[in-house]
Design a protein that fits this description.
Elements (H helix, E strand, L loop, with lengths): L1 H22 L3 E5 L2 E4 L5 E5 L4 E6 L2 E5 L6 E5 L5 E7 L3 E6 L4 E6 L4 E2 L3 E2 L5 E7 L6 E7 L7 E6 L2 E2 L8 E4 L3 E5 L3 E9 L2 E12 L4 E3 L3 E4 L3 E4 L8 E2 L7 E5 L6 E7 L2 E7 L5 E7 L12 E4 L3 E5 L4 E5 H4 L5 E9 L10 E8 L9
Antiparallel strand pairs: 1-2, 2-30, 3-4, 4-5, 5-6, 7-8, 8-9, 9-10, 9-11, 12-13, 13-14, 14-15, 16-17, 17-18, 18-19, 20-21, 21-22, 22-23, 24-25, 25-26, 26-27, 28-29, 29-30, 31-32
């Protein structure tokens, strides 16, 4: 009997090892509503056309099932992949640091197009593709041996000659928003020759990544910059905890923000009216700098983010649990009613949980 049990244990171990080797990742319950997968990633996006996550890694461009976390395919598109961003007409733009280049990956054919060298031997710091033109994008680079970033426009495979000192950027139809290492976010003119001069400074910000929505720019230090971006007009989202990384759920128009403070990771959610609708402290994750991570949100309740060694898949419905509010007492005190004076009403409410009530 002991020999049989030993044999079964050994076969179980072999099968478990084979499963992990075959699928390339191991799912662990990091916290309620959050699953962890052992994957070394550098950046990620979610593509609604193929309904897959795409991530850059030391081994290539990974296609990941967002439900199971399993790596479905690996595409060899170059060495030392860095940034990845979703572009127009079902394409991804990928940064190739060793080549100082960007490369478009066609999501319809699942094949890579020819690389475009932006600046030889430079690192790719940021990529902002056009939302409408599949072959138009802004790219920020850091030349080898330099601490001064250089940004350029790329159109139809050609790097346009006029450049600016920009590290973080967001490309719109008729202008470019950009920031150097720190300081003001600037609106720049753009034309057929590249990035023109500054048009307006719209406000100061810490060094921060950017997400451009239809009506505002969001930065990862909590800044909100309403359109049309022609004057100083910085605002802040309520209860923004610390510097981190930000994304916009294009399906729901929600803003989601991941930050770290005091060794604790926090996930915050805001609706399209910029009201704070969720705050969740995530326990048990390895320490990491959220500014070095990327996050993506899709559907009504799905989110993914990564550290250098793990992919995390989040079910927002399980993380942001609803509150259950019940009014239990109402006090209305009125003496000598005068309509020119305010009436004081005290309302006592109990929250039966399980979630925290916000904006009450």
């Amino acid at each position: 009997m002991r020999q049989t049990g030993s044999r079964r244990a050994r076969w179980s171990s072999i099968l478990f090892t084979f499963f992990v080797a075959l699928h390339g990742s191991l799912s662990l319950c990091a916290a309620e509503g959050i699953r962890a997968f052992d994957l070394e990633l550098r950046a990620l996006v979610y593509d609604p056309f193929t309904a897959r996550i795409y991530a850059t890694s030391p081994g290539g461009l990974l296609q990941i099932d967002p439900d199971s976390g399993r790596v479905l395919r690996t595409f060899q598109v170059g060495a030392n992949l860095s940034r990845v961003e979703l572009g127009a007409d079902r394409g991804l733009w990928i940064g190739l640091d060793d080549e100082g280049a960007v490369r478009r990956f066609n999501l319809q054919t699942l094949s890579a197009e020819e690389p475009i060298v932006v600046r030889a031997d430079a690192a790719i710091l940021d990529i902002s593709p056009s939302r409408f033109d599949p072959y138009y994008l802004a790219v920020a680079t850091m030349p080898a041996g330099s601490s001064t970033p250089v940004a350029a426009l790329v159109r139809n495979g050609t790097v346009l000659p006029l450049t600016q000192t920009i590290r973080h950027l967001a490309l719109d139809v008729n202008f470019l928003l950009g920031q150097a290492n720190a300081g003001n976010i600037i609106r720049y003119s753009i034309d057929g020759f590249g990035i023109g001069g500054p048009v307006a400074a719209i406000g100061a910000s810490a060094r921060a990544s950017m997400e451009l929505a239809e009506d505002a720019l969001y930065t990862s230090d909590g800044g909100v910059w309403p359109a049309p971006f022609i004057a100083l007009d910085r605002r802040s989202l309520p209860n923004w905890p610390a510097q981190g990384t930000v994304t916009i759920n294009r399906s729901t128009k929600e803003i989601l923000f991941l930050s770290s403070s005091g060794g604790q990771l926090y996930l915050n959610r805001y609706d399209s009216a910029r009201r704070h609708t969720g705050n969740h402290a995530i326990p048990g994750l390895e320490p990491f700098d959220p500014t070095e991570s990327t996050i993506a949100a899709w559907s009504s309740n799905q989110l993914a983010f990564h550290t250098t060694s793990n992919l995390y898949l989040v079910n927002l419905d399980e993380v942001f649990l609803p509150a259950d509010l019940e009014p239990i007492r109402q006090d209305l005190s009125v003496t000598n009613l005068n309509f020119s004076q305010p009436v004081e009403i005290t309302l006592t409410i109990t929250n039966h949980g399980p979630g925290t009530a916000l904006n009450v």
